[in-house]
Amino acid sequence: MSTESSRRVPPWASWSTLVPILAAVLLGFTWGRDLPGWVVSGVALFLAGSVLAAVHHAEVVAHRVGEPFGSLVLAVAVTVIEVALIVTMMSSNGEKSATLARDTVFAAVMITCNGIAGLCLLLVALKRGLARFNADGAATVFGAIITLAGLTLVLPTFTTSQPGPEFNTTQLTNAALDSIVLYGLFIVAMTVRHRPDFLPVDAAHPAADYDDADYEDPRETGPAAGSAKNPAPGYDEHGYEGDRPTSRQALTSLVLLVLALITVVGLGKGVSPTLERGVDRAGLPHSVVGVAIALLVLLPESIAAVRAAHRDELQTSLNLALGSAMASIGLTIPTIAVATIWLSSPLILGLDASHMVLLALTVAAGSLTFVRGRATLVQGGVHLAVCFSYLVLAVSP
């Protein structure tokens, strides 16, 4: 055995294996207890470590199964975290959490469609001059996102059968069915019927489909360095570094991914009372809690999407961002609708006027961006401006 091989860290001793296991042990000691401040700090560190471990193991699984299945794995994983946190907090906080589902889902839509997508578009455009992606897939999923956002987050503000921005039982059932059916159709389209629409343009369509006669980038003399036809040095045809994981490695990562997600949910529940007390003491709107949950659960998506953009795999980045927004609405709303059977608190889903303006700006900007299949740094900057405005208004409405 060579010296280099002997110095390799065994898989069981790597940080990505140890952190979820230690976090699970910590969860067992802290579950259901009122934690002092210094313990909360330690829990928060393991919470962040579990999120990073989830990113690592999700990427291993994604590398094994390839696109677009890999993006789907991570999108569903983070949505499970989101739903679990919302349900647990609504069950323990009563009427105080009546708007938590709305705030979290809307935050997820704004952060994914504007923050993550805008940042990835900007990074690739700065590097390549022109950011190319598959317009067929991006436009399809974005159209489904804005439709569900309108049906579940805007429409309740204008219904009259219930006082306030709420659905009655029939309307909520309809919204839940619309969400789950459209999400199911999206899954079928992404993985079976129209899978090429969610692959990089070089792999799914010939370059002639995109007429760039009106734009020439002197830095771009051939296929993108990270494209399926010309992968970057050290990366495979999917844009992942190193050799493809074995089935055993992928299965191990899947188990550790599930464990990491469980610890994120459990530790997040332990940290949430401290977070809510901090929000109240700072005099911030309670909707900030929903923003914080969305930022936490979308951290794995954000890291994975930015890393993919750095490898010139913009399609993977957009699959992650838009797929996560679709999962957030398509899975959260039906789950919360079922949870209202035993939850005593009301469920307020309707957005206020300022948030509807931000959603309208997202629809306008996204429609001009995702239907073209290419973007400059201006489009990336526009989406980031909308996201930053949303975050500012969340703190100072």
UniProtKB/TrEMBL annotation:
Annotated membrane topology is: Multi-pass membrane protein
Report any Pfam family annotated for this entry. Na_Ca_ex
Which residue ranges traverse the bilayer? 12-32, 38-57, 69-92, 104-126, 138-155, 175-192, 250-268, 288-306, 318-342, 348-370, 377-396
Provide the residue span(s) of the region labelled Disordered: 210-243
Q: Does the keyword Membrane apply?
A: yes
- The record's principal subcellular location, in a coarse class, is membrane
Which residue numbers delimit the Sodium/calcium exchanger membrane region domain?
A: 43-191, 253-394
Where is this protein localized, as stated in its record?
Membrane
Protein name according to UniProt: Ionic transporter y4hA
Q: Organism, per UniProt? A: Catenulispora yoronensis
Q: What is the lineage of its organism?
A: Bacteria, Bacillati, Actinomycetota, Actinomycetes, Catenulisporales
